[in-house]
């Protein structure tokens, strides 16, 4: 396949080759909406790639809804997005995509009431809905409310464990001054392919959200979480298929109270996409919003997410560094990372301060940046201290 060379990246979905980075990149069509946020992707059996996100005037407003674009398997241009949702009374956010056993694409997302005077955040009214497509994302059926408990939020798609169990990470939002600091992580577990669900709480998880579940080996799970204190990505473990979890502990990776995305690669490594920034003085139990959500990095771990000796900035943005240059950088945030059946990595994130969604395709070797024999000489402790 031949791709045009950068420069030339425009909001029309055309995939270009970035010779300097060794990646393929595209800016997805915006659908005419002024803001875009929180993308998610899934690969279809025919090789098409779907990307969905929420679009509208402003996060939390009732005109915010879920839209979906398709990258046909020839891989040259993303198509104009189509609407998935459209409840005029609710702000529909944080979609995820899952290819179900019914051969349909499931779009799971939150739906919260519109903004009201005196309330900046209505997440405590959110429920989780599902809409399905049986034609590869071109059209979507009516929604069903899967989790009607108000305050339920989600981000990572349903994960299918090696024993067939489904696990779906949530966090529970409350209406209080400390609501965002208090959001605990909960997991929905299903042993009958989503027909029934039960909830498992993670202990000591207030302020730990956006859990990404990975199965290291049968029954042994890890979850990586965004931290409201804007300090570090946190990690929790389960040794019994998600029935019980350890109290979250910090990893070496910084977190700026923005979404992360973690996946187990075919090589066995764990890859995490994130913004490598944090607040220098976290206050325990208090949410912080440092603001800087740039650049976007991908980090690799070979020990189940305890250390990350290999890190590459996949999105450098405007390239400014330091607190005095914050206003010179646009925001590149809420990455979603997945691996295709052919081994290629697909990364999507809100770009240029939510003007739209950017897509990047690359290989694991592009992150490693050297022959494996050389990478093996790295000292993880030294690499983390740089």
Automatic annotation (TrEMBL):
Residues 47-347 form the Sialidase domain. This is Sialidase family protein.
């Amino acid at each position: 396949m031949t791709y045009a060379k950068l420069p030339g990246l425009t909001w029309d979905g055309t995939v270009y080759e970035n010779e300097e980075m060794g990646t393929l990149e595209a800016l997805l069509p915006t659908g005419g909406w002024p803001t875009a946020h929180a993308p998610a992707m899934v690969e279809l059996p025919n090789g098409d790639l779907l990307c969905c996100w929420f679009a509208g005037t402003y996060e939390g407003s009732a005109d915010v809804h879920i839209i979906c674009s398709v990258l046909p398997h020839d891989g040259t241009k993303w198509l104009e997005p189509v609407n998935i949702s459209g409840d005029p009374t609710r702000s529909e956010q944080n979609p995820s995509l899952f290819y179900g056993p019914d051969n349909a694409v499931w779009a799971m997302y939150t739906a919260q009431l519109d903004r009201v005077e005196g309330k900046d955040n209505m997440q405590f009214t959110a429920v989780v809905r599902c809409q399905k497509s049986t034609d590869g994302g071109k059209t979507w059926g009516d929604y069903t409310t899967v989790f009607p408990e108000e305050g339920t939020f989600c981000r990572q798609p349903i994960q299918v464990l090696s024993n067939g169990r489904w696990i779906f990470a949530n966090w529970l939002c409350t209406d209080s001054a400390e609501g965002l600091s208090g959001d605990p992580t909960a997991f929905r577990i299903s042993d009958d392919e989503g027909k029934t669900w039960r909830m498992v709480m993670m202990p000591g998880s207030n302020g730990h959200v956006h859990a990404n579940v990975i199965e290291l080996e049968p029954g042994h799970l890890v979850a990586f979480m965004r931290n409201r204190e804007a300090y570090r990505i946190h990690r929790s473990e389960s040794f019994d298929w998600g029935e019980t979890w350890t109290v979250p502990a910090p990893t070496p990776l910084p977190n700026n109270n923005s979404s992360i995305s973690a996946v187990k690669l075919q090589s066995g490594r764990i890859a995490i996409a994130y913004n490598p920034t944090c607040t220098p003085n976290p206050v325990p139990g208090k949410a912080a919003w440092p603001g800087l959500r740039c650049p976007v990095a991908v980090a690799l771990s070979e020990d189940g997410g305890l250390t990350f000796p290999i890190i590459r900035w996949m999105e450098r943005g405007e390239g400014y560094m330091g607190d005095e240059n914050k206003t010179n950088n646009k925001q590149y945030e809420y990455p979603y990372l997945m691996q295709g059946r052919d081994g290629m990595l697909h990364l999507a994130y809100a770009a240029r301060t939510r003007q739209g969604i950017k897509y990047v395709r690359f290989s694991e070797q592009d992150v490693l940046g050297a022959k494996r024999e050389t990478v093996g000489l790295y000292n993880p402790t030294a690499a983390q201290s740089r």
